[in-house]
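Researcher: We're teaching a course module on how sequence relates to structure. For the next exercise, students receive a sequence and then see the predicted structure as tokens, so they can try to spot secondary structure elements on their own. Here is the exercise chain.
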Amino acid sequence: MDAPVLDVMNIPTVSGYNNAEELESYQHIVDELSLKIEELEQRMIEVEQFNPTTSKKQLKSSKGSSNGKDKDKEKHIPGLKKQQQEASKREAAAAKRMHDLMRQFGTILSQITRHKWAWPFMQPVDVEGLGLHDYYEVIDKPMDFSTIKNQMEAKDGTGYKNVRQICADVRLVFKNAMKYNEERSNVHVMAKTLLKKFEEKWLQFLPKVIEEEKRREEEEAEARMNIQLVYEAAHAKMARDISNELHELDTHLEELREMVVQKCRKISVEEKRKLGAALTRLSPEDLGKALDIVAQNNPAFQATAEEVDLDIDAQSESTLWRLKFFVKDALEVQGKSSCSASMGGNNNNKDNPTNNDNTNNNNDNNTNNNSNKRKREISNAIAKVVKKKSKRPAS
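Model: And here is the predicted structure for the students to work with:
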């Protein structure tokens, strides 16, 4: 089935131009606007993806844990480097305070390990020597004080990060012994007694731990807030820059509008008739879009009404040209889609040479559709400016 494209729709968009220089000037402005629109679209995507919210991810990025691409972007965010430096200083200070706490906690361990009943827990359990064949079936994670001491002294980053981790392993030493040995056994009684003594000393030491944890939490919250403020300021700047770019683009659109309005000829009666006929060939979706175009310059026109009475002769030249552009593009896409659908049944055989042609046609269709979309965007922008200027009082 042939595509229902009317010849009248193939009239160039600048048919009123008198020479090649004017046409080239028009094309140059359109190309510039197209590139500018693409650039703004990409920047708008970046702004939308820019999420200046309080999060641990942002705090981590301030410590230098983000990937290379993010680091390149962050270099251009004012104030971020300063916040990163302050965050590093806070982290270093907090780590030092926690190290001091662990050193103080070491005195408690010394008191426990010097107890006369501490000797069974100082080294790993000699499972083979004592013939404890079921030990690893009962005990999931063996622990002893020599292992704890090695973890506390580790310098390669594998050691304990805070006091609570040490406390948990101390408890594990005694609970393992109580779990594996019978309640009346000497080792069980020794472990239970030492665990009670440890818990008493831990309760006395706990307020210091809670105070440090609270202080660190407050500092991290403050750091997140500062990072958020920096990102929000950067986001606001990006939005302002794009707003300025859009204002500049509006100026160029105004210049383009003047050029088009002055150079484009009026649509003839015959073209209006063919335009009206072409509108009836549109799909319901495209027809709705066409009626929306009419409604943009005619506030009283109700495009969504059940019955629409469209008077082609009553429309402005700007509206008619926009309808021509839209209908031409819509019927071309509609016709190519119909052709592709009718040929689809013959493309199942992989050896059919037309498969490659159809693939190429689809690629061409996508390219044409993108080009047509860009033309419609520019046309819509022109009409918007026309409508805005038509509301100004005559000088």
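Model: If you want an answer key for the exercise: The chain has a mean pLDDT of 76. The chain has 13 helices and no strands.
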